[in-house]
């Protein structure tokens, strides 16, 4: 079976990578006013060149900037829109193999009409594209992040008395960003979408109800929002989604298989591929993949980024074979289950483990697909 000549590739990855100590120190110094934004940009640029080399050395065809210019995977992007404020979240317990981790993920609230005063990730992409000859992938958070954590109460009623108008404006500002990315050469975007996966967890479904939302209707709402956000992308721009159950310092939030959202996820969203978490029993089994139509790619996230323990290549091949009972092998690919550092602190593994896991993705994919 031949390698794919366009993304998502047989061996791919989600995007974020461990930040080096130099970058963490520079961010702290910038926050304290000790260095300028331009000086921080230079430190970030060096870190990006290093992670580009890491990805290329591992044999990957899709290259990201590792989120080196972000403090967190979604906040830096969403806060770039006019009318959006980031506020403190409700303390919840993330879970890990060592117990529970107290964390209060921030939430977006809409305080006025949405606008996009300038490019948000465009200069980031422009630099990345200049740093690699391979396919540069731009990761952006799903537009659903602007709604899910606060619900209707987080949307200013004077600015948006009608929620249809809110969703239309939200899709518009995303289209504007994607159009500019396309204009400067981006042909591979990834929407990082946690909320479909969160809606697989009974506890978080109940949380949505407490916000006045219907957890059975939200997947349809978000499918329409995503479709409107990406509808004008060029025909040769690949758009994928990544689904995640939370990724903060090797801990997670949600549990539960994809069954509650699978039919909507695979058949109501005009997307080319899905990066799906499948590294542990908390993600359920492969049965929901029976809803995947022809023409869409499932990137199996079988290699965990949360811990240093290395997966066994034969076990990975066995699991790919299991998945192929629901989706043809030609529609499958392989990746880590999430990024290595969705937040600045990163997960509990080091740079050597990170490179080994990326290399394992490539080696396994070559042996399975050729």
Notable characteristics:
globular, alpha/beta, TIM Barrel, 35% helix
Description:
With 370 residues, this protein is an alpha/beta fold. The chain has a single domain, classed as TIM Barrel (Alpha-Beta Barrel), CATH 3.20.20.210. It is built from 11 helices and 12 strands. Strands 7-8-9-10-11-12 form a 6-stranded parallel β-sheet. Helix 9 links the parallel strand 9 and strand 10. Helix 1 runs antiparallel to helix 2, helix 2 crosses helix 11 and helix 5 packs parallel to helix 8. The longest helix has 22 residues.
Compact summary:
By secondary structure, the chain is of the alpha/beta class.
Side by side, the strands of the main sheet go 7-8-9-10-11-12
Biggest sheet record: 6 strands, parallel
Which structural class best describes the helix and strand composition?
alpha/beta
| Name of the CATH class | Alpha Beta
Number of DSSP helical runs: 11
Specify the helix fraction band. 25-40%
Poorly predicted runs of 5 or more residues: none
**CATH architecture title:** Alpha-Beta Barrel
Tell me the domain tally: 1
In terms of DSSP E residues, the strand content is 15-25%
- The beta-strand count equals 12
What's the overall geometry? Answer: globular
| Rg, Cα atoms, Å | 19 Å
Roughly what is the average pLDDT, rounded to an integer?
93
How far from one another are the termini? Answer: 6 Å
SSE string: HHEHEEEEHEEHEHHHEHEEHEH
Give me the CATH fold name. Answer: TIM Barrel
């Amino acid at each position: 079976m031949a390698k794919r000549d366009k993304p998502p590739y047989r061996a791919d990855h989600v995007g974020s990578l461990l930040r080096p100590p130099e970058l963490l120190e520079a961010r702290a110094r910038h926050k304290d006013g000790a260095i300028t934004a331009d000086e921080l940009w230079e430190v970030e640029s060096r870190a990006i060149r290093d992670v580009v080399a890491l990805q290329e050395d591992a044999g990957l065809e899709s290259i990201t900037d590792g989120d080196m210019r972000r403090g967190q995977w979604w906040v830096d992007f969403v806060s770039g829109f006019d009318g959006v404020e980031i506020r403190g979240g409700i303390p919840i317990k993330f879970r890990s193999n060592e117990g529970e981790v107290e964390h209060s993920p921030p939430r977006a609230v809409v305080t006025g009409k949405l606008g996009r005063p300038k490019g948000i990730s465009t200069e980031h992409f422009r630099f990345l594209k200049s740093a690699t000859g391979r396919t540069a992938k731009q990761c952006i958070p799903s537009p659903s992040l602007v709604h899910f954590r606060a619900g209707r109460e987080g949307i200013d009623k004077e600015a948006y008395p009608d929620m249809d108008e809110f969703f239309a404006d939200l899709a518009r500002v995303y289209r504007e960003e994607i159009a500019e990315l396309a204009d400067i050469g981006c042909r591979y975007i990834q929407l990082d979408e946690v909320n479909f996966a969160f809606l697989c967890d009974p506890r978080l479904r109940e949380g949505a109800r407490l916000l006045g939302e219907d957890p059975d209707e939200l997947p349809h709402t978000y499918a329409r929002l995503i479709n409107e956000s990406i509808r004008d992308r060029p025909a040769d721009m690949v758009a994928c989604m990544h689904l995640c159950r939370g990724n903060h310092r090797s801990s997670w939030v949600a549990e539960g298989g994809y069954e509650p959202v699978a039919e909507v996820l695979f058949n109501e969203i005009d997307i080319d591929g899905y990066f799906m978490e499948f590294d542990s029993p908390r993600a359920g089994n492969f049965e929901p993949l029976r809803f995947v139509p022809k023409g869409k790619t499932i990137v199996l996230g079988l290699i965990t980024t949360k811990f240093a323990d290395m997966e066994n290549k034969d076990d990975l091949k066995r699991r790919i074979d299991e998945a192929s009972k629901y989706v043809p092998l030609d529609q499958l690919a392989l990746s880590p289950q999430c990024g290595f550092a969705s937040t600045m602190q990163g997960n509990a593994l080091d740079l050597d483990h990170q490179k080994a896991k990326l290399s394992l993705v490539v080696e396994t994919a070559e042996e399975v697909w050729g």
